Amino acid sequence: MSTFAIGVDLGGTNLRIAAVDERGTLLEKTTTGTQVARGRDFVIGEMCEAIRATATKFSSSKLAGIGIGVPGIIDMDTGMLRESPNLPGWHDYPVRDEIERRLGTKVILENDANSAALGEKWLGAARDYDDMLMLTLGTGVGGGIVLGGRVWHGMRGMAGEPGHITIEPEGPPCPCGNRGCLEQYASATAVVRMAREAIDQGSSPALARASQEDPEFGAKVVYQAAVQGDPVAQEIFRRVGWALGIGLADLINLLNLPIYLIGGGVANAWDAFLPALLEEVRKRSFVYRATAPEESSGSGKKTIITRALLGGDAGLFGAARLPLLVSEAALREGVRKRA
Ligand SMILES: [Zn+2]
Q1: Residue 219 pairs with which residues in a beta bridge?
Q2: CB-side exposure of 272: number of CA atoms within 13 Å?
Q3: What is the layout of strands, in order, in the sheet containing 3-10?
């Protein structure tokens, strides 16, 4: 009998559910909108219904378990969602208990950016590495650290928040309470803020035009302006790279990992921010300089900084991986006891 797991990505906009087998083959994927406005009971009800439907469809296989990626800070001990900017009204809500009560089975909750890191480690750009870090540049900047093939949780599951590393002590205020966080320079929200500042100062007619033409003026439009040669838009992405480079230099000095991935929507502007990123990393991290891949001198392992591969599916695969890791560990434990 084959084994599969159910991975869920509960976002502020979409609810996605996948059935994935133990080798990482996607068996099925469904996407529905998350009707956050109808409240948490409704959203959890819809999610549990969809999980049940998926489990029933593959009932001839063995279900290893259910992993759920949730945006926000989760207390791993209690299964409470402590804070979630994308799920307003869910804070200090016992999400795990509520889902388990409705489904009548155990589930594993994980922060969505941690899930994405685990997905990239399992099947994506970091699949040949046991240790890795991923930054996800979306509405905010999320992150996840995987050590020895498992998410590094810290004491209560709150580790891996590189989006809130301080880049400038007196920089723009961040919803986390700090100022000048990486998220204030490298998220889609930050790109749009910097573009609007430039428009207000009258320094970029191209961006001003683009914002008038497109009511949903976003980071993608700013990137298009940069590609088309607008110097202000190009400078915005240099600033993204500058901030990412400062943050990564700290992380590289601290962790000396073999690979650092950058994913999320803003990573599509890779070519616009990479030069500034590498310049800063090289300038600020002696650990990077000693292990840089472009260094011809010195053999041995190199520090890789590269793009994530799985796009929006990383979190879904990572969530499915969570129960599979638990059943693999149980299997190893059983073998050890019999030996
Ligand atoms: Zn912050």
Answers
A1: none
A2: 27
A3: 26-33, 14-21, 3-10, 62-70, 108-111
Instruction: Compute the distance from residue 111 Cα to the ligand 1 centre, in Å.
Output: 16
Q: How far is the CA of 163 from the centre of ligand 1 (A)?
A: 7
For residue 334, how far is its CA from the centre of ligand 1 (angstroms)?
Answer: 43
Residue with tokens 């759920």: 68
Under 8 Å between Cβ of 322 and 65: yes
* CB of 187 closer than 8 Å to CB of 266: yes
Specify the 3-state DSSP secondary structure of 152.
Answer: coil
**Tokens at 246, concatenated:** 């400062």
Cα 130 to middle of ligand 1, angstroms: 28
Residue with tokens 């990573």: 267
| Distance of alpha carbon 8 from alpha carbon 44, whole angstroms | 12
The token duo for 200 is 């207000």
Q: Which two tokens stand for residue 23?
A: 């080798």
| Distance (Å) from CA 160 to ligand 1 centroid | 13
- pLDDT tens digits, one per residue of 267-296: 999 999 999 999 999 999 999 999 999 765
Q: How far is the CA of 65 from the centre of ligand 1 (A)?
A: 33
Least Cα distance to 114 among 82, 88, 76 occurs for 76
Distance, CA of 320 to CA of 176 (rounded, Å): 29
* Cβ atoms 311, 261 nearer than 8 A: no
Instruction: Indicate yes or no: pTM above 0.90.
Output: yes
- How far apart are the C-alpha atoms of 39 and 25, rounded to whole Å? 33
Taking each helix axis as running N to C, give the angle between helix 231-255 and helix 205-213, from 0 to 180 degrees, rounded to the nearest 10: 90
In single-letter form, the type of residue at position 339 comes to A
> What's the pLDDT tens digit per position in 137-196?
998 999 999 999 999 999 988 899 999 999 999 999 998 899 999 999 999 999 999 999
